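Project channel, design review

CF: Before we commit to the Amycolatopsis heterodermiae constructs, I'd like one complete example in the thread so the newer folks can see what an input/output pair looks like. Taking PQQ-dependent sugar dehydrogenase.
RD: sounds good, go ahead.
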Amino acid sequence: MAPRPAWRAGIVVAALAGTAMSPATAYAAAAVDYEAESAVISQGVVESNHAGYSGTGFVNFDNVAGSYVEYSVNAAQAGTHTLTFRYANGTADNRPVKLVVDGGDKGTVDFPATGDWTTWKTVTATVQLTAGVNKVRTTATTANGGPNADKLTDTFTAPSDSEPPSPPSNLAASNILPTAATFSWTAATDNVGIVRYEINRGGNVLKTVDGTTTSATVDNLTPNTAYDISVGAYDAAGNPSQQSNVVAFTTPPSNDTTPPSVPGSLRSTGVTANSVSLAWNASTDNGGTITAYDVFQGATKVASTTSLTSTVTNLNPNTSYTFTVKARDPNGNSSAASNAVTVKTSAPGGAGGIPEYDKDIAKVDLGWAVDFLPNGNALVTERDRFEILLVTPSGQKTTLGRVPGAVTTTGEGGVLGLAISPNWASDHAIYVYHTASGDNRIVKMTYDGTTLSSTSTPVLTGIAKNRYHNGGRIRFGPDGKLYATVGDAKNSDNAQNKSSLNGKILRLNSDGSAPGDNPFYATGGNARYVWSYGHRNPQGLAWDSRGQLWAAEFGESSLDELNLIQKGGNFGWPSCEGTQGSCSGFIAPKKTWPTSQAGPSGVEIVNDWIYIAGVTGKQLFATQINAAGTGVGTVSTLFSGRWGRLRSVTKTPDGGLWLTSTNNDMNGGTPTVLDNVIVRLKFPAAH
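CF: and here is what came back for PQQ-dependent sugar dehydrogenase:
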């Protein structure tokens, strides 16, 4: 709303605390309303010019930082209380307030836009109240002031159900058809009751059924496609079970012999001395699915991708190349070739930023994370072998030892992130994010250049784990603090709950304490570690030349994300996925991809070019941060299908990139087989 005249800025209204209720009524009521117009108001005014409010009006904060509404909440019982604020915000901006209870800072409560001033919504905060009267003050933190405040509702929260269901068991698949399969399982058990089951492919939900159903048919499968299916149970409190056993199968081909239509309008979208970027229009297929687009350089297939773009690298300068593209459906039917396009690469010294393949470094099992020592050697985590490797630039590989206490989740858990201390020369400390018997955790080990310690010291524990959505990337930032990406552990409510470590990017000191300048430090508990929240399953972290943090995040079923992280920022999950859903008031991603094309995991930044390792899309993405540092330009897709599922990308001390693959990683891996790669990429100027 427009700022009001300055004469209103000093108005203070004092009135009775809460609505007119006797103590007996308050004790009997499940929830108690406190109208904002009956609270203590500083730098605000009671108005009634927007319809839809309760009581006799609402409080219009003055457009200044420091304006506040203070409620006197008469709690019948001491303990955990949920405060529900009803408000309207007709601007496009979030209007956060600082929440203070009896003088204690309880952090910031966000009030996102509601669309207009007559649309009333609610936000909640969970606090500890004492029996009797508690002073609850909401103070505007920005020059925009607070929202239009209607009322506060106090609800005493009885001890919550924190016991998850047991995993469903004996999952079996039957009647497997080209586009459908039936699944049955033995029911999970719970101390209260099961309300739903989710049938998952990897970490993505295929179908949801109620808690009394133990058999269901999924009818949106693709012919001739490999699936790994599990089932998870949920109780009424939202607690997720661990996943059932996994059923792996391949749907049979259909009788479809009709090829897709020809990809249209193949064209060049960018040229450097060593690369050509291509784009084309989508094909259609009578079965509704395009499995891949195969890119040909002459008669040689050089890329296979689900995207509508591809960048071909390792080309010679000043040389003409001819390209075509064919579409392929799940039954292996290929379209005719697209139009041919001939492109000449530029002279050396042209636009840079696109790396090319240099050489193989080593074969590993599942190299999940890489970090470099000062001498140029690298430490690499083996996710399912629970090992840390030493790998030299020449490819010499040594197993240093195992991470004690590490376990698998037969899915996305195990030994994940790795970060070498910025003071390694003096403290010899390395940090590892791994799954343990009861949680995910960050631990400290030592490596003195010769010997890896056989024990570890816990740094941060109690991160909920699940078969899926464990996050796991850790890196030291330019500020010397350790950052960690944490998934929601298949409980999407975790992402918005600041008391949970899950669904967050965390920031901590190297000793495991929480930095005092973290945005929710004053709230206490786990919230002290939260740097940003509203994340589903983030896995990539990197900083640009301005010191800004960028992160990549796996979407559910629609959109994957590249985010520019803000301190204390809310990125919307589960209300918002990418740019889909209820996204008003949340921080929007800087780039999205369909989940079938990306699966962004590791992220690296070199000279303000961002490189993203794609797991699902089986390709590397490259894009340049714009001059203002606020977004990115055109995205190039590199090495499409060449090494399969790409997990990490890390800049090397000698000016290149190391890229790792993690194929066969969806069901606990194959730790007896070293069939994944670490490869080195080089830049045109670094031949």
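RD: helpful, thanks. Residues 166 and 188 are 5 Å apart (CA to CA).
CF: The chain has four domains: 6-156, 169-250, 264-344, 356-686.
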